[in-house]
Amino acid sequence: MSDMINIKINGMDFAAPKGSTILEAARLANITIPTLCFLKEINAIGACRICVVEANEGRGFRTVAACVYPITEGMEIRTNTPAIIESRKKTLELILSNHDRKCLSCVRSKNCELQALANDLGIEFEGKYDGETQNYDIDYSAAHMYRDNNKCILCRRCVAVCEKTQGIGVIGANERGFKTHISSAFEMGLGDTSCVSCGQCINVCPTGALSEKDFTSEIIAAIADPSKKVVVQTAPSVRAGLGECFGMPIGTNVEGKMVAALRRLGFDCVFDTNFTADLTILEEGTELIERVKNGGKLPMITSCSPGWVKYCEHYYPDCIDNLSSCKSPQQMFGAVLKTYYAEKMGWDPKDIVSVSIMPCTAKKFEMGRDDQNAAGVADIDYAITTRELGRMIDRAGINFADLPEEKFDDPLGIFSGAGLIFGATGGVMEAALRFAVEELTGEKLNGEKLDFKEVRGTEGVKEASYNVNGLEIKVAVASGLANAKKIMDKVRSGEADYTFVEIMACPGGCVNGGGQPIVPASVRNFTDVRSLRAKALYDQDAAMELRKSQDNPAVKALYDEYLEKPGSHKAHEILHTSYVARKINKDFD
Ligand code: SF4
Ligand code: SF4
Ligand code: SF4
User: What does the pLDDT read at residue 588?
Assistant: First the structure.
Protein backbone atom coordinates (compact mmCIF):
# COMPACT_ATOMS: atom_id res chain seq x y z
CA MET A 1 0.00 0.00 0.00
CA SER A 2 1.29 3.42 -0.93
CA ASP A 3 2.54 5.66 1.82
CA MET A 4 1.29 8.67 -0.12
CA ILE A 5 -2.22 10.09 0.01
CA ASN A 6 -3.85 11.78 -2.97
CA ILE A 7 -5.58 15.06 -2.27
CA LYS A 8 -6.80 18.15 -4.09
CA ILE A 9 -5.83 21.59 -2.84
CA ASN A 10 -7.59 24.57 -4.37
CA GLY A 11 -8.59 22.39 -7.31
CA MET A 12 -5.09 21.02 -8.04
CA ASP A 13 -3.93 17.42 -7.48
CA PHE A 14 -1.19 16.69 -4.96
CA ALA A 15 0.10 13.72 -2.97
CA ALA A 16 1.43 13.96 0.57
CA PRO A 17 2.79 11.38 3.04
CA LYS A 18 0.27 9.42 5.07
CA GLY A 19 -0.14 10.92 8.53
CA SER A 20 0.34 14.50 7.32
CA THR A 21 -1.95 17.21 8.56
CA ILE A 22 -3.61 19.55 6.08
CA LEU A 23 -1.09 22.22 7.15
CA GLU A 24 1.87 19.95 6.34
CA ALA A 25 0.40 18.74 3.05
CA ALA A 26 -0.30 22.32 1.95
CA ARG A 27 3.24 23.33 2.81
CA LEU A 28 4.57 20.55 0.55
CA ALA A 29 2.42 22.05 -2.17
CA ASN A 30 4.04 25.45 -1.49
CA ILE A 31 0.94 26.87 0.13
CA THR A 32 1.37 28.49 3.54
CA ILE A 33 -1.72 28.37 5.71
CA PRO A 34 -1.47 31.02 8.44
CA THR A 35 -1.21 29.84 12.05
CA LEU A 36 -0.95 31.46 15.45
CA CYS A 37 -1.14 28.93 18.27
CA PHE A 38 0.42 25.98 16.43
CA LEU A 39 4.00 24.95 17.16
CA LYS A 40 5.14 21.66 15.70
CA GLU A 41 5.59 18.90 18.29
CA ILE A 42 4.95 21.38 21.10
CA ASN A 43 1.55 23.01 20.78
CA ALA A 44 -1.06 21.42 18.49
CA ILE A 45 -4.30 22.47 20.14
CA GLY A 46 -6.22 23.90 17.19
CA ALA A 47 -7.44 26.67 19.46
CA CYS A 48 -6.87 30.00 17.72
CA ARG A 49 -8.83 29.07 14.53
CA ILE A 50 -6.58 31.15 12.28
CA CYS A 51 -5.57 28.09 10.27
CA VAL A 52 -9.13 27.16 9.29
CA VAL A 53 -9.68 25.71 5.81
CA GLU A 54 -12.57 23.98 4.07
CA ALA A 55 -12.19 20.21 3.70
CA ASN A 56 -14.44 17.72 1.91
CA GLU A 57 -14.15 14.00 2.61
CA GLY A 58 -17.15 13.05 0.49
CA ARG A 59 -19.79 14.55 2.76
CA GLY A 60 -19.55 18.18 1.69
CA PHE A 61 -17.16 20.94 2.74
CA ARG A 62 -16.65 21.53 6.47
CA THR A 63 -14.47 24.11 8.20
CA VAL A 64 -11.58 22.45 10.07
CA ALA A 65 -8.33 23.50 11.76
CA ALA A 66 -5.51 22.64 9.31
CA CYS A 67 -2.84 22.31 12.01
CA VAL A 68 -4.44 19.23 13.57
CA TYR A 69 -6.72 17.80 10.88
CA PRO A 70 -5.18 14.78 9.05
CA ILE A 71 -5.48 14.36 5.29
CA THR A 72 -7.42 11.37 3.93
CA GLU A 73 -7.48 9.77 0.49
CA GLY A 74 -9.38 11.87 -2.04
CA MET A 75 -9.82 14.80 0.34
CA GLU A 76 -10.55 18.15 -1.31
CA ILE A 77 -9.18 21.19 0.49
CA ARG A 78 -9.88 24.88 -0.07
CA THR A 79 -7.47 27.22 1.71
CA ASN A 80 -8.39 30.56 0.29
CA THR A 81 -12.13 31.03 -0.28
CA PRO A 82 -13.81 34.36 0.58
CA ALA A 83 -15.56 32.66 3.51
CA ILE A 84 -12.26 31.32 4.89
CA ILE A 85 -10.52 34.67 4.55
CA GLU A 86 -13.48 36.37 6.24
CA SER A 87 -13.42 33.84 9.07
CA ARG A 88 -9.71 34.39 9.70
CA LYS A 89 -10.19 38.17 9.59
CA LYS A 90 -13.03 38.04 12.10
CA THR A 91 -11.01 35.84 14.46
CA LEU A 92 -8.09 38.22 14.24
CA GLU A 93 -10.25 41.30 14.76
CA LEU A 94 -11.65 39.72 17.91
CA ILE A 95 -8.12 38.98 19.17
CA LEU A 96 -7.08 42.56 18.39
CA SER A 97 -10.11 43.96 20.23
CA ASN A 98 -8.46 43.03 23.54
CA HIS A 99 -4.89 43.74 22.47
CA ASP A 100 -2.70 46.68 23.44
CA ARG A 101 -2.03 47.81 19.88
CA LYS A 102 1.11 49.87 20.40
CA CYS A 103 3.17 48.66 17.45
CA LEU A 104 5.16 51.90 17.27
CA SER A 105 6.87 51.22 20.59
CA CYS A 106 6.71 47.42 20.63
CA VAL A 107 9.89 45.38 20.76
CA ARG A 108 8.43 42.85 18.32
CA SER A 109 7.31 45.31 15.66
CA LYS A 110 8.61 44.10 12.26
CA ASN A 111 9.00 40.58 13.71
CA CYS A 112 5.54 40.02 15.18
CA GLU A 113 3.40 37.17 13.90
CA LEU A 114 0.21 38.97 14.92
CA GLN A 115 1.19 42.18 13.17
CA ALA A 116 2.28 40.30 10.04
CA LEU A 117 -0.98 38.38 9.97
CA ALA A 118 -3.03 41.56 10.36
CA ASN A 119 -1.16 43.00 7.38
CA ASP A 120 -1.46 39.85 5.30
CA LEU A 121 -5.18 39.55 5.94
CA GLY A 122 -5.77 43.19 5.19
CA ILE A 123 -7.39 44.12 8.50
CA GLU A 124 -9.03 47.42 7.63
CA PHE A 125 -10.42 48.65 10.92
CA GLU A 126 -8.64 47.07 13.82
CA GLY A 127 -10.99 48.51 16.45
CA LYS A 128 -14.18 46.98 14.95
CA TYR A 129 -15.06 44.91 18.02
CA ASP A 130 -13.57 47.16 20.70
CA GLY A 131 -15.33 47.01 24.05
CA GLU A 132 -14.26 46.18 27.57
CA THR A 133 -10.55 45.38 27.75
CA GLN A 134 -8.30 43.87 30.35
CA ASN A 135 -5.56 45.99 31.84
CA TYR A 136 -2.72 43.98 33.30
CA ASP A 137 0.32 45.14 35.25
CA ILE A 138 3.56 44.21 33.51
CA ASP A 139 5.53 41.57 35.45
CA TYR A 140 9.13 42.78 35.77
CA SER A 141 9.98 40.50 38.71
CA ALA A 142 12.36 38.15 36.88
CA ALA A 143 15.99 39.14 36.26
CA HIS A 144 15.95 38.17 32.61
CA MET A 145 12.55 39.04 31.10
CA TYR A 146 9.19 40.72 31.48
CA ARG A 147 5.63 39.63 30.74
CA ASP A 148 3.11 42.08 29.29
CA ASN A 149 -0.21 40.28 29.27
CA ASN A 150 -1.81 43.22 27.48
CA LYS A 151 -0.13 41.88 24.35
CA CYS A 152 -0.79 38.20 25.03
CA ILE A 153 -3.15 36.39 22.65
CA LEU A 154 -3.55 33.28 24.83
CA CYS A 155 -2.02 30.97 22.24
CA ARG A 156 -0.31 29.06 25.09
CA ARG A 157 2.86 28.40 23.11
CA CYS A 158 4.88 29.65 26.10
CA VAL A 159 3.02 27.37 28.48
CA ALA A 160 3.64 24.36 26.25
CA VAL A 161 7.36 24.98 25.77
CA CYS A 162 7.91 25.57 29.49
CA GLU A 163 5.98 22.43 30.43
CA LYS A 164 6.87 20.01 27.63
CA THR A 165 10.25 21.02 26.22
CA GLN A 166 11.71 22.23 29.48
CA GLY A 167 9.70 20.08 31.88
CA ILE A 168 9.32 23.03 34.23
CA GLY A 169 5.75 24.32 34.10
CA VAL A 170 5.97 27.55 36.05
CA ILE A 171 3.38 29.27 33.84
CA GLY A 172 -0.18 28.40 32.91
CA ALA A 173 -3.63 29.84 32.34
CA ASN A 174 -5.27 31.44 35.37
CA GLU A 175 -9.00 32.28 35.65
CA ARG A 176 -11.57 31.50 32.93
CA GLY A 177 -13.43 33.12 30.02
CA PHE A 178 -12.75 36.81 29.39
CA LYS A 179 -10.50 36.91 32.46
CA THR A 180 -8.23 34.10 31.28
CA HIS A 181 -4.59 35.14 31.39
CA ILE A 182 -1.17 33.49 31.44
CA SER A 183 0.58 33.79 34.76
CA SER A 184 2.11 31.71 37.54
CA ALA A 185 0.40 29.90 40.38
CA PHE A 186 -1.27 32.23 42.88
CA GLU A 187 -0.28 35.16 40.60
CA MET A 188 3.33 34.90 41.79
CA GLY A 189 5.76 37.12 39.90
CA LEU A 190 7.85 35.01 37.55
CA GLY A 191 10.95 35.95 39.54
CA ASP A 192 9.46 34.30 42.63
CA THR A 193 8.90 30.97 40.91
CA SER A 194 11.43 28.27 40.07
CA CYS A 195 11.66 29.60 36.49
CA VAL A 196 15.22 28.95 35.29
CA SER A 197 15.49 32.03 33.03
CA CYS A 198 16.01 29.97 29.86
CA GLY A 199 13.91 32.32 27.71
CA GLN A 200 12.51 29.52 25.56
CA CYS A 201 9.05 30.98 26.19
CA ILE A 202 10.17 34.29 24.65
CA ASN A 203 11.41 32.50 21.53
CA VAL A 204 8.05 30.92 20.84
CA CYS A 205 5.82 33.88 21.69
CA PRO A 206 4.29 35.24 18.48
CA THR A 207 3.84 38.74 19.93
CA GLY A 208 5.50 41.29 22.19
CA ALA A 209 3.97 39.79 25.33
CA LEU A 210 7.28 38.28 26.42
CA SER A 211 10.67 39.87 26.01
CA GLU A 212 14.12 40.03 27.55
CA LYS A 213 14.99 42.98 29.79
CA ASP A 214 16.82 45.37 27.50
CA PHE A 215 20.16 46.93 28.57
CA THR A 216 21.04 48.57 25.27
CA SER A 217 20.48 52.18 26.43
CA GLU A 218 22.77 51.67 29.43
CA ILE A 219 25.51 50.32 27.14
CA ILE A 220 25.15 53.19 24.67
CA ALA A 221 25.48 55.62 27.62
CA ALA A 222 28.60 53.82 28.91
CA ILE A 223 30.24 53.94 25.48
CA ALA A 224 29.63 57.70 25.40
CA ASP A 225 31.32 58.15 28.81
CA PRO A 226 35.04 58.91 28.22
CA SER A 227 35.98 57.78 31.74
CA LYS A 228 34.90 54.18 30.97
CA LYS A 229 36.63 51.38 29.12
CA VAL A 230 33.78 49.46 27.54
CA VAL A 231 34.88 45.95 26.60
CA VAL A 232 32.69 43.45 24.79
CA GLN A 233 32.83 39.66 24.45
CA THR A 234 30.67 37.62 22.07
CA ALA A 235 29.56 34.04 22.72
CA PRO A 236 30.17 31.38 20.04
CA SER A 237 26.53 31.11 18.92
CA VAL A 238 25.97 34.81 18.35
CA ARG A 239 27.91 34.70 15.04
CA ALA A 240 25.62 31.87 13.88
CA GLY A 241 22.41 33.79 14.62
CA LEU A 242 23.01 37.53 14.32
CA GLY A 243 22.75 37.58 10.51
CA GLU A 244 19.07 36.61 10.82
CA CYS A 245 18.38 40.03 12.38
CA PHE A 246 19.40 41.49 9.01
CA GLY A 247 17.52 39.09 6.77
CA MET A 248 20.39 36.66 6.13
CA PRO A 249 19.64 32.93 5.79
CA ILE A 250 19.53 30.84 8.97
CA GLY A 251 23.00 29.38 9.62
CA THR A 252 25.02 32.24 8.07
CA ASN A 253 28.26 32.75 10.01
CA VAL A 254 28.73 36.52 10.39
CA GLU A 255 31.72 36.54 12.73
CA GLY A 256 33.77 39.11 10.76
CA LYS A 257 30.87 41.51 10.17
CA MET A 258 29.82 41.20 13.82
CA VAL A 259 33.31 42.27 14.96
CA ALA A 260 33.22 45.17 12.49
CA ALA A 261 29.80 46.26 13.79
CA LEU A 262 30.94 46.15 17.42
CA ARG A 263 33.93 48.39 16.58
CA ARG A 264 31.63 50.83 14.82
CA LEU A 265 29.36 50.87 17.86
CA GLY A 266 32.35 52.22 19.78
CA PHE A 267 33.48 49.39 22.07
CA ASP A 268 37.07 49.90 23.22
CA CYS A 269 38.02 46.23 22.79
CA VAL A 270 36.18 43.50 20.89
CA PHE A 271 36.97 40.11 22.39
CA ASP A 272 35.57 36.61 22.13
CA THR A 273 34.01 34.40 24.80
CA ASN A 274 35.59 31.51 22.87
CA PHE A 275 38.84 32.50 24.58
CA THR A 276 37.38 31.63 27.96
CA ALA A 277 35.59 28.61 26.49
CA ASP A 278 39.14 27.35 25.88
CA LEU A 279 40.09 28.38 29.39
CA THR A 280 37.05 26.52 30.73
CA ILE A 281 38.27 23.33 29.07
CA LEU A 282 41.63 23.58 30.80
CA GLU A 283 40.03 24.22 34.20
CA GLU A 284 37.10 21.81 33.82
CA GLY A 285 39.22 19.11 32.17
CA THR A 286 41.77 19.35 34.97
CA GLU A 287 38.96 19.16 37.54
CA LEU A 288 37.55 16.07 35.82
CA ILE A 289 40.90 14.28 35.74
CA GLU A 290 41.44 15.14 39.44
CA ARG A 291 38.02 13.71 40.31
CA VAL A 292 38.64 10.55 38.29
CA LYS A 293 42.10 9.99 39.79
CA ASN A 294 41.26 10.90 43.38
CA GLY A 295 37.80 9.39 43.78
CA GLY A 296 35.93 12.71 43.57
CA LYS A 297 32.21 13.08 42.95
CA LEU A 298 31.17 11.59 39.59
CA PRO A 299 29.71 12.11 37.16
CA MET A 300 31.04 15.59 36.91
CA ILE A 301 28.49 17.78 35.13
CA THR A 302 29.23 20.91 33.11
CA SER A 303 28.34 24.31 34.54
CA CYS A 304 28.48 26.51 31.43
CA SER A 305 24.72 26.85 31.02
CA PRO A 306 23.21 29.10 33.71
CA GLY A 307 19.70 27.87 32.88
CA TRP A 308 20.83 24.33 33.60
CA VAL A 309 22.70 25.37 36.77
CA LYS A 310 19.59 27.12 38.12
CA TYR A 311 17.50 24.08 37.19
CA CYS A 312 19.91 21.83 39.10
CA GLU A 313 19.75 24.12 42.12
CA HIS A 314 15.93 24.08 42.18
CA TYR A 315 15.11 20.56 41.04
CA TYR A 316 18.20 18.46 41.88
CA PRO A 317 19.76 20.28 44.85
CA ASP A 318 21.08 16.93 46.08
CA CYS A 319 23.25 16.78 42.91
CA ILE A 320 24.93 20.18 43.31
CA ASP A 321 28.24 18.50 44.16
CA ASN A 322 28.19 16.88 40.73
CA LEU A 323 28.42 20.31 39.08
CA SER A 324 31.86 21.45 38.00
CA SER A 325 32.93 24.38 40.16
CA CYS A 326 34.01 26.31 37.04
CA LYS A 327 32.31 29.61 36.35
CA SER A 328 30.71 29.80 32.92
CA PRO A 329 32.84 31.14 30.03
CA GLN A 330 30.93 34.46 30.23
CA GLN A 331 31.80 34.90 33.88
CA MET A 332 35.37 33.65 33.45
CA PHE A 333 35.81 36.26 30.74
CA GLY A 334 34.63 39.08 32.99
CA ALA A 335 36.86 37.81 35.78
CA VAL A 336 39.97 37.61 33.56
CA LEU A 337 39.17 41.01 32.03
CA LYS A 338 38.94 42.80 35.36
CA THR A 339 41.98 41.08 36.94
CA TYR A 340 44.66 39.95 34.46
CA TYR A 341 43.80 42.25 31.56
CA ALA A 342 43.13 45.28 33.78
CA GLU A 343 46.55 44.78 35.42
CA LYS A 344 48.23 44.35 32.04
CA MET A 345 46.67 47.59 30.74
CA GLY A 346 47.03 49.55 33.98
CA TRP A 347 43.24 50.04 34.17
CA ASP A 348 41.25 50.31 37.40
CA PRO A 349 38.65 47.49 37.31
CA LYS A 350 36.07 50.03 38.53
CA ASP A 351 36.48 51.94 35.23
CA ILE A 352 35.82 48.88 33.09
CA VAL A 353 32.33 48.18 31.79
CA SER A 354 32.19 44.51 30.90
CA VAL A 355 29.55 43.72 28.28
CA SER A 356 28.68 40.28 26.97
CA ILE A 357 26.64 39.43 23.89
CA MET A 358 24.94 36.13 24.52
CA PRO A 359 22.45 33.83 22.79
CA CYS A 360 20.96 33.43 26.23
CA THR A 361 18.62 35.19 28.64
CA ALA A 362 19.77 33.19 31.69
CA LYS A 363 23.08 35.06 31.48
CA LYS A 364 21.19 38.12 32.75
CA PHE A 365 20.35 36.14 35.87
CA GLU A 366 23.82 34.63 36.12
CA MET A 367 25.67 37.96 36.13
CA GLY A 368 23.89 38.88 39.37
CA ARG A 369 24.70 35.64 41.21
CA ASP A 370 26.82 35.75 44.35
CA ASP A 371 30.54 35.06 44.05
CA GLN A 372 30.88 36.44 40.51
CA ASN A 373 33.19 39.36 41.29
CA ALA A 374 36.82 38.26 41.05
CA ALA A 375 38.20 41.81 41.14
CA GLY A 376 35.84 42.98 43.89
CA VAL A 377 33.43 44.39 41.30
CA ALA A 378 30.96 42.48 39.14
CA ASP A 379 32.64 40.27 36.52
CA ILE A 380 29.89 41.24 34.07
CA ASP A 381 28.05 44.57 34.01
CA TYR A 382 25.63 43.96 31.15
CA ALA A 383 24.70 40.68 29.47
CA ILE A 384 22.64 41.29 26.35
CA THR A 385 21.10 38.95 23.83
CA THR A 386 21.84 38.52 20.12
CA ARG A 387 18.51 40.30 19.54
CA GLU A 388 19.56 43.31 21.61
CA LEU A 389 22.80 43.57 19.63
CA GLY A 390 20.75 43.49 16.42
CA ARG A 391 18.69 46.39 17.76
CA MET A 392 21.83 48.37 18.71
CA ILE A 393 23.23 47.92 15.21
CA ASP A 394 19.94 49.05 13.66
CA ARG A 395 19.70 52.03 15.98
CA ALA A 396 23.22 53.13 15.06
CA GLY A 397 22.31 53.07 11.37
CA ILE A 398 25.05 50.54 10.56
CA ASN A 399 24.50 48.77 7.26
CA PHE A 400 25.40 45.31 8.52
CA ALA A 401 25.32 43.44 5.22
CA ASP A 402 27.90 45.76 3.65
CA LEU A 403 30.40 45.71 6.54
CA PRO A 404 33.88 44.31 5.93
CA GLU A 405 35.06 41.19 7.74
CA GLU A 406 37.26 42.13 10.70
CA LYS A 407 39.17 40.17 13.34
CA PHE A 408 38.83 40.16 17.12
CA ASP A 409 41.36 42.07 19.20
CA ASP A 410 44.28 40.26 20.86
CA PRO A 411 44.88 38.55 23.19
CA LEU A 412 41.41 37.77 24.57
CA GLY A 413 40.05 37.29 21.07
CA ILE A 414 42.24 34.30 20.23
CA PHE A 415 40.40 30.97 20.27
CA SER A 416 40.43 27.38 19.08
CA GLY A 417 37.79 25.42 17.20
CA ALA A 418 37.13 23.56 20.46
CA GLY A 419 36.05 26.79 22.15
CA LEU A 420 33.92 27.71 19.14
CA ILE A 421 31.80 24.54 19.16
CA PHE A 422 30.66 25.22 22.76
CA GLY A 423 27.64 26.78 21.05
CA ALA A 424 26.16 23.45 19.93
CA THR A 425 24.90 20.60 22.09
CA GLY A 426 27.81 18.16 22.56
CA GLY A 427 30.37 20.87 21.81
CA VAL A 428 31.66 21.26 25.35
CA MET A 429 31.91 17.49 25.63
CA GLU A 430 33.86 17.23 22.36
CA ALA A 431 36.19 20.06 23.39
CA ALA A 432 36.76 18.36 26.76
CA LEU A 433 37.47 15.03 25.06
CA ARG A 434 40.02 16.68 22.76
CA PHE A 435 41.77 17.80 25.94
CA ALA A 436 41.27 14.78 28.24
CA VAL A 437 42.35 12.15 25.70
CA GLU A 438 45.62 13.99 25.03
CA GLU A 439 46.18 14.58 28.72
CA LEU A 440 45.57 10.95 29.72
CA THR A 441 47.43 9.31 26.82
CA GLY A 442 50.20 11.85 26.31
CA GLU A 443 49.65 11.46 22.55
CA LYS A 444 48.82 14.36 20.24
CA LEU A 445 45.39 14.20 18.58
CA ASN A 446 45.24 15.32 14.97
CA GLY A 447 43.07 15.10 11.85
CA GLU A 448 39.96 12.97 12.12
CA LYS A 449 40.88 11.90 15.64
CA LEU A 450 39.81 15.36 16.76
CA ASP A 451 36.21 14.67 15.72
CA PHE A 452 34.10 12.96 18.38
CA LYS A 453 31.07 12.55 16.15
CA GLU A 454 29.15 10.38 18.65
CA VAL A 455 28.41 13.46 20.74
CA ARG A 456 27.37 15.66 17.80
CA GLY A 457 23.84 16.14 16.46
CA THR A 458 20.67 17.60 17.86
CA GLU A 459 19.14 14.55 19.55
CA GLY A 460 18.00 15.42 23.06
CA VAL A 461 20.09 12.73 24.78
CA LYS A 462 23.36 11.21 23.51
CA GLU A 463 25.57 8.65 25.21
CA ALA A 464 29.03 7.33 24.33
CA SER A 465 31.85 5.41 25.92
CA TYR A 466 35.60 5.78 25.28
CA ASN A 467 38.47 3.57 26.36
CA VAL A 468 41.36 5.91 27.08
CA ASN A 469 44.56 4.12 28.10
CA GLY A 470 42.53 1.35 29.75
CA LEU A 471 40.29 3.86 31.52
CA GLU A 472 36.64 3.70 30.52
CA ILE A 473 35.11 7.17 30.17
CA LYS A 474 31.33 7.07 29.87
CA VAL A 475 29.73 10.29 28.78
CA ALA A 476 26.22 11.64 28.31
CA VAL A 477 25.00 14.83 26.65
CA ALA A 478 21.54 16.34 27.11
CA SER A 479 19.95 19.52 25.83
CA GLY A 480 16.53 20.84 26.75
CA LEU A 481 15.64 20.42 30.39
CA ALA A 482 13.01 17.70 29.91
CA ASN A 483 15.87 15.69 28.41
CA ALA A 484 18.19 16.69 31.24
CA LYS A 485 15.63 15.26 33.65
CA LYS A 486 15.95 11.83 32.01
CA ILE A 487 19.71 11.86 32.68
CA MET A 488 19.46 13.41 36.12
CA ASP A 489 16.93 10.88 37.38
CA LYS A 490 19.44 8.15 36.49
CA VAL A 491 22.29 10.05 38.13
CA ARG A 492 20.24 10.62 41.27
CA SER A 493 19.17 6.98 41.56
CA GLY A 494 22.69 5.71 40.86
CA GLU A 495 21.41 3.78 37.83
CA ALA A 496 23.87 5.53 35.50
CA ASP A 497 27.63 5.33 35.89
CA TYR A 498 28.67 8.20 33.69
CA THR A 499 32.04 9.87 34.15
CA PHE A 500 31.19 13.20 32.57
CA VAL A 501 27.87 14.76 31.58
CA GLU A 502 27.19 17.87 29.49
CA ILE A 503 23.84 19.57 29.99
CA MET A 504 22.57 22.64 28.14
CA ALA A 505 19.25 24.16 29.13
CA CYS A 506 18.15 25.01 25.60
CA PRO A 507 17.21 22.31 23.07
CA GLY A 508 20.11 22.00 20.64
CA GLY A 509 22.36 24.06 22.92
CA CYS A 510 23.13 27.78 22.82
CA VAL A 511 22.60 28.07 19.06
CA ASN A 512 18.93 27.76 19.98
CA GLY A 513 19.21 29.86 23.13
CA GLY A 514 16.45 32.05 24.49
CA GLY A 515 18.26 35.20 23.32
CA GLN A 516 18.70 34.22 19.68
CA PRO A 517 16.73 35.88 16.86
CA ILE A 518 13.11 34.80 16.95
CA VAL A 519 12.12 32.59 14.05
CA PRO A 520 8.40 32.83 13.23
CA ALA A 521 6.40 29.63 13.55
CA SER A 522 5.74 29.58 9.80
CA VAL A 523 9.49 28.94 9.34
CA ARG A 524 10.26 27.18 12.59
CA ASN A 525 7.60 24.51 12.04
CA PHE A 526 9.28 23.39 8.83
CA THR A 527 13.01 24.14 9.33
CA ASP A 528 15.66 22.53 11.56
CA VAL A 529 16.91 25.88 12.82
CA ARG A 530 19.27 24.49 15.44
CA SER A 531 21.08 22.15 13.00
CA LEU A 532 21.61 24.94 10.49
CA ARG A 533 23.08 27.24 13.13
CA ALA A 534 25.24 24.44 14.62
CA LYS A 535 26.60 23.63 11.16
CA ALA A 536 27.95 27.17 10.89
CA LEU A 537 30.09 26.49 13.98
CA TYR A 538 31.24 22.98 13.02
CA ASP A 539 32.19 24.15 9.51
CA GLN A 540 34.31 26.95 10.97
CA ASP A 541 35.95 24.55 13.43
CA ALA A 542 36.81 22.08 10.66
CA ALA A 543 38.52 24.85 8.68
CA MET A 544 40.65 26.07 11.59
CA GLU A 545 44.26 25.21 12.30
CA LEU A 546 43.93 25.74 16.04
CA ARG A 547 41.36 23.15 17.13
CA LYS A 548 42.31 22.26 20.71
CA SER A 549 41.84 24.50 23.73
CA GLN A 550 45.15 23.38 25.23
CA ASP A 551 47.00 24.75 22.16
CA ASN A 552 45.56 28.28 22.49
CA PRO A 553 48.69 30.46 22.85
CA ALA A 554 46.83 33.28 24.60
CA VAL A 555 45.45 30.88 27.21
CA LYS A 556 48.97 29.49 27.74
CA ALA A 557 50.25 33.06 28.22
CA LEU A 558 47.49 33.74 30.76
CA TYR A 559 48.66 30.77 32.83
CA ASP A 560 52.36 31.65 32.42
CA GLU A 561 51.93 35.31 33.27
CA TYR A 562 49.17 35.16 35.86
CA LEU A 563 47.27 32.02 36.82
CA GLU A 564 50.29 29.68 37.13
CA LYS A 565 48.62 26.43 36.01
CA PRO A 566 45.15 24.92 35.53
CA GLY A 567 43.51 24.27 38.88
CA SER A 568 45.98 26.48 40.80
CA HIS A 569 44.89 28.32 43.95
CA LYS A 570 44.79 31.59 42.01
CA ALA A 571 42.79 30.00 39.17
CA HIS A 572 40.30 28.76 41.75
CA GLU A 573 39.93 32.18 43.31
CA ILE A 574 39.25 33.86 39.97
CA LEU A 575 37.61 31.23 37.79
CA HIS A 576 35.60 28.98 40.10
CA THR A 577 32.40 29.44 42.09
CA SER A 578 29.82 27.68 44.25
CA TYR A 579 26.09 26.92 44.11
CA VAL A 580 23.06 27.11 46.38
CA ALA A 581 20.11 24.77 46.91
CA ARG A 582 16.85 26.50 45.92
CA LYS A 583 13.20 25.59 46.41
CA ILE A 584 10.71 24.44 43.79
CA ASN A 585 8.02 27.09 43.51
CA LYS A 586 5.63 26.47 40.67
CA ASP A 587 2.60 24.34 41.38
CA PHE A 588 -0.72 25.04 39.76
CA ASP A 589 -2.45 22.17 41.56
S1 SF4 B 1 2.58 42.48 19.86
FE2 SF4 B 1 2.64 42.78 17.64
S3 SF4 B 1 0.62 43.59 17.12
FE4 SF4 B 1 0.91 43.82 19.32
S5 SF4 B 1 1.75 45.87 19.62
FE6 SF4 B 1 3.48 44.47 19.43
S7 SF4 B 1 4.02 44.50 17.26
FE8 SF4 B 1 1.97 45.36 17.43
S1 SF4 C 1 12.15 31.37 31.05
FE2 SF4 C 1 12.12 29.11 30.78
S3 SF4 C 1 11.58 28.33 32.81
FE4 SF4 C 1 11.05 30.51 32.80
S5 SF4 C 1 8.90 30.60 32.20
FE6 SF4 C 1 10.10 30.79 30.32
S7 SF4 C 1 10.30 28.70 29.53
FE8 SF4 C 1 9.64 28.54 31.67
S1 SF4 D 1 2.59 35.11 26.21
FE2 SF4 D 1 2.93 34.85 24.03
S3 SF4 D 1 3.24 32.65 23.80
FE4 SF4 D 1 2.28 32.94 25.79
S5 SF4 D 1 0.08 32.71 25.42
FE6 SF4 D 1 0.55 34.91 25.29
S7 SF4 D 1 0.93 35.31 23.13
FE8 SF4 D 1 1.05 33.08 23.42
Answer: 60
